[in-house]
Structure formats: structure tokens, C-alpha cells
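Here's what a typical entry looks like (Bifunctional NAD(P)H-hydrate repair enzyme):
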Amino acid sequence: MLRIIKGSEVATLDELTVVHQRISSFELMERAALSFVNWFTNQAMSKSSRVAIFFGPGNNGGDGLAIGRLLHKHGYSIHLFSCFESNSGLSSDCQKNFELIPFGVLNSSWKEFQKEDFDCVIDSFLGVGIRGELRHQAKNIVSKINSFPGKKIAVDLPSGLPADTSCLWECVQADITVTFAFPKLSLLFPEHAKYSGEMVVLDIGIPDSIYEQFNSYFFFLREIDLCAFHKTFHRFSHKGDFGKVLLVAGSKGKMGAAMLATKSALRTGSGLVTCLVPEDERCSIHSSVPEAMAVFYDSEINFSAYDSIGIGPGLGLDKLVLLERVFDNFPYPVVLDADALTILARNPYLFAKIPKGSILTPHLGEFERLFGNFESHIDRLKFAQDFCVSHQLNLVLKGANTVICLSDGRQIFNSSGCRHMATAGVGDVLTGMLTSFLGQGYSPEAAMICGVFQHGLAGELAGMEKVRSMIASDLIDQIPASFKKLGVE
Ligand SMILES: NC(=O)C1=CN([C@@H]2O[C@H](COP(=O)(O)OP(=O)(O)OC[C@H]3O[C@@H](n4cnc5c(N)ncnc54)[C@H](O)[C@@H]3O)[C@@H](O)[C@H]2O)[C@@H](O)CC1
Ligand SMILES: [K+]
């Protein structure tokens, strides 16, 4: 998994890479520019597009100049806009690229930018080098860039955005941020959505081993990381090996949630799925998911007969006693979602009773209900870390870049998913997937990594086909394709 390091450490990352790969820092910058241009030319942007590039005096500006030179070579019409008063303070690689500006590429002051003259703006004014509050003149430049109504693409970071903390001033509002090597932490904060826009991470060939020299408890989960966490089953495996799963879910009027979680657990590979539901509602489960079994709220249940238990989707808020019964009688990690989280929020004494290693899956609203309001995402994450470590629990904070908060303090940002997943029932599907992986004998960490990533991947596949018409059942239908895409049978 890719370590997310601090903005202030990027210069050291740069130096270590340059030494390790025996290249110059100019060559590393060229690599970054080439990867950007490769991406840009694949974006169906017409060659007749008029592209404005704002460039600053540091290496972010150097990237912009190199990008301008390469795009000019591809036939784009490029106009550079310098964001500084004098050429004397340029970083050495920015200076080198400045000297390489090709004949035919216009270069003016940022003050002369006319928004009507362009189809696209590339923002390479400031990157991870910003320190402290944005200076007055820089704020004017940011406003100028933001006055452009068309597509704005930020290089590495939207200018003005600090790399690791919440932003208290106006930054460039990019439609897309193309960031190099690893996602800068602040690009993953929901409060920065209007600045970062869509995020693209481009590999610039820095080996993972170099990141390991930095201390960080933040990680970024990519598709290539997944296989190592999946279990393999052999030809003598039988349905018992794939786990006996119990889903405690559903109440009158909310049986859909139980059905989604149940179907999802079956599609994720569970051999035997039982649903604990109100007896009156048994017909709905039997007719919609014939592969599942049902037991009823009022009967005696031997919880320890199951390999994993997921509790919460559509459960109703009157199940405090049931929740306590599960905690008292099941010693292994459980998955807690939806109404189970609200019951917890109302009865915090229960935190101490939750089996160690369990997984709580709140979205931002549920997190607030459980733990209160936070001014910034970084404060929220710090609280989640302390909570997970002190209670020896895991937490999946659901959102655009879902964060897997582990009981050892590590926090892993997910990279899969799409905006069409913001629809009813998608959380119930995740509960089914996590419970299923736990039941198949995955550790809580492996269950969360595989469940969260694959949930996002299935969402992407469903979103491609169904766009905004996507519903949670479409996501379940794509779980098999998500296994195939990962090469997991
Ligand atoms: N190590 C890496 O991985 C690579 C980094 N590269 C680029 O290098 C960038 C970092 O370059 P630098 O370290 O030169 O920094 P930047 O170019 O991001 O910023 C430096 C400039 O910001 C100004 N500045 C600092 N604080 C400010 C404030 N509060 N208000 C206004 N201006 C302020 C400084 O005066 C300086 O001129 C990255 O964002 C990336 O774009 C790329 O060249 C590729 C390789
Ligand atoms: K930038």
C-alpha cells in the first residue's frame, strides 16, 4: 500500500528518488510532465483547444512549463502566464524549463489573462511548497484563475491548498486535480471537494521502497494491493469453508435493507447465509433471496454457531436488548452498521461490550451521531484513530474516499468508487460484503481492505453502465465482475 507522506517531505522524496534511480531532478520533473501530458492527450481534448498555463516560480511552475513545452509539441495552442514579478527567484529546474520555452509559445503576466480567449486552464502556480496562509498577491492570482468559467486542471494540488491540513482561505477551484506519485492528504478531505474536483493520481516511477523511509500512518489503497489480502480456496473446499454468516437486519417497512445485505453476502462468496428477521416478514426474504435461510427475532438463537455476524441494516431502533445478546454471546468480530450504530450512539456504555476487532461502518452523518461534530476531516480522523486504538475496534468511515481506520492506528484511504454510489442501500451492500469476508475466515483488516475496495470497484462497474440511474442492486450484480477484474476466483 502506498504511504501518504507530508507535503513538506516531498522534497526529500524527490532527493532520495534522484539518488536511487541515478537521474537528475530535472529528469524527474520531465517524467512528471510527460505523465501529465500522456493523461491530458487521452482526455478527448481537441487539438484546437486554446490552453492557458499559469506557472509559479517553484517546481510546480517548472512542471507547468515542461507540460506547456510538451503540449506545444503535440500541436496544442499554449499561452503561458507567469505568476511572479521577477525572473530572478525561480527554482533551478523551473529556470531550466523557463529557458526551454519554445518559439511560438506566448508568455505574459497573469494580469493579462483574458478568460474569453481559452478553452482550458492548467494551474501550475503553487503545489506542495506553500507554507502558512496564502499571501495577498497569491490570493489575487487564485481569484484570476477562478474567474475562468471553463475546465480548470490543477497540477499536483489546486494552488493555495495546503498539502496536509484544512484550508481556511480561497484556493483554486479545480475541476480535476492531477497529482503526482501519491495523493496529497488534503485532496482526500470532503471539505475540499470544491477545490480538488476529481482526483487523478499519476505514477512517476518512485518505488514503494522509498516511501517506506517515511513515517506515516496514512495509506492509499490501490487495485494492485488487493490480491495479497484475498484467500484462495482449493477444489476440496465445501460450503462450510466459505463461512456461516448471520445478518441481523430488517424490520417492518425496512426489509429491503436486509435483502440487499443478504444478497450481497451470498454474491461475495458466503456458503451459508441466514437472516435474523421479524417472523411476519419471513416471506419477503424467502421469496426474494431463496438461497438464504431465516431465523426469527423471538426465537432462541445460538449465535456462536455462526462464523460472522453483521448487524444493523433496516434493523429498527428498538433492538438494544438483541444487540446486547449478540455482544454477550458472540466472541468474534462483528460488523455494525446503520440502526445498530444509532443504538450505540444512544447507549455509549455499549462500546465497551463490542467484541474486539469488530468493524463499525458509519457514514459522515452516523459518525457525527456517534462522536459529535468536527471542524475538519483531520480532526475527525484523529478522533477516529484514538477511538479505534483505545477500544481495539475498527471503523470504516464511508464517503468519497472511504477511510479504513484500523485498531492499530493506521488509516487507509480507498481509491475505488464513483459518485453514482450515493444512493439508497449501497451501505447495506457493504455490510453484506464485510460480513461475508469475515465469515470466510478473513482477518478484520483483510475483510475491510477487500470489502471496501471491491464495493467501490463494483460501484464503478455498475456506474459505467447505469450512470445516475444506478441502484444498490446493480452494484450487487457487479460483485462477480469485480472478482474477475481482480483475478480472484
Ligand atoms: N518530489 C516530487 O515528487 C516532485 C515534485 N514536483 C513538483 O514540485 C512541486 C513542489 O515544488 P516546490 O517545493 O518548489 O514548491 P511550489 O512550487 O509548490 O511552491 C513554491 C513557491 O511557493 C511560494 N510560497 C510558499 N508559501 C507561500 C504562501 N503562503 N503564499 C504564497 N506563495 C507561497 C514560495 O515563495 C515559492 O515561490 C510539487 O507540488 C510538484 O508539482 C514535480 O516536479 C515532480 C517531482
Ligand atoms: K497547482
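The domain at 13-212 is CATH 3.40.50.10260 (Rossmann fold).

More examples are in the samples folder.
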